[in-house]
């Protein structure tokens, strides 16, 4: 039954694309442009833009073509949509930006392109308070975390639970993220809402390599703190 329903949805989506109307919608509220962007179909994106598709149209979940392309890591589609005027800081109905979606799903080149287009690395999702950096930290995306930090992301921002990118990385045992944050000057003594330092969090979670790295960083920071 599930396979039959999937086939029906595919037929409906193809029917929307085949009708030639750039403003047509399928049962999910997707326009042909959104469908093409979601699947990484650059030729389709070009075709629907040429036919006057609304680049800011949203499906029933509040997703635009850019958000779908960013989530899927479709770099060329993202570049084409940005060139056509898509907003690099666009958000979905859940308040997630294209940058957050790309960062949290490991799409480094898309993150780089969005930042170059003016995406704000410090925008926070309104419910959880996540930033692109916090999401990257949670998912262990060290290279993306480093890229965001080089682009000015604030490593001290806290989510709605009181966690920073560093406390999340410590809790998850993501050494590469911890290294990126410390290299960018994020204090190793950051705490969570309960007052636990990142070092304590990592120790309680059993992440030995992270504990060692944070302990060394904390020791190195002490003389500098004493000088002040």
Task: Kindly describe this structure.
This protein is mainly α and about 230 residues long. The protein has two domains: about 1-120, Alpha Horseshoe (Serine Threonine Protein Phosphatase 5, Tetratricopeptide repeat); about 140-220, Ankyrin repeat-containing domain (Serine Threonine Protein Phosphatase 5, Tetratricopeptide repeat, Alpha Horseshoe), CATH 1.25.40. It has 13 helices and no strands. The protein has helices spanning about 1-20, 30-40, 40-50, 65-70, 75-85, 100-105, 110-115, 130-140, 140-150, 165-170, 175-185, 200-205, 210-225. Helix 2 (about 30-40) packs parallel to helix 4 (about 65-70) and helix 11 (about 175-185) packs parallel to helix 13 (about 210-225). Mean pLDDT is about 90; it is low at about 5-10 and about 225-228.
């Amino acid at each position: 039954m599930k396979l039959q329903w999937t086939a029906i949805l595919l037929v409906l989506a193809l029917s929307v694309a085949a009708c030639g109307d750039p403003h047509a919608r399928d049962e999910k509220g997707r326009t042909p442009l959104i469908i093409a962007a979601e699947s990484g179909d650059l030729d389709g994106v070009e075709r629907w833009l040429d036919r006057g598709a609304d680049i800011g149209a949203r499906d029933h979940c509040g997703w635009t073509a850019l958000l779908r392309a960013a989530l899927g890591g479709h770099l060329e589609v993202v570049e084409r949509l940005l060139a056509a005027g898509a907003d690099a800081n666009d958000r979905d109905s859940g308040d997630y930006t294209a940058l957050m979606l790309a960062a949290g799903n490991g799409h480094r080149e898309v993150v780089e392109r969005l930042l170059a287009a003016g995406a704000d690395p410090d925008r926070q999702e309104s419910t959880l308070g996540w930033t692109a950096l916090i999401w990257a930290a949670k998912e262990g995306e060290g290279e993306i975390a480093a890229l965001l930090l080089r682009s000015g992301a604030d490593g001290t921002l806290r989510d709605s639970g009181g966690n920073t990118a560093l406390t999340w990385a410590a809790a998850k045992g993501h050494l590469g993220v911890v290294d990126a944050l410390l290299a960018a000057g994020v204090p190793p003594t950051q705490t969570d809402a309960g007052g636990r330092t990142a070092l304590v969090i990592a120790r309680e979670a059993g992440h030995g390599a992270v504990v060692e790295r944070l302990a060394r960083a904390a020791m190195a920071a002490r003389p500098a703190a004493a000088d002040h």
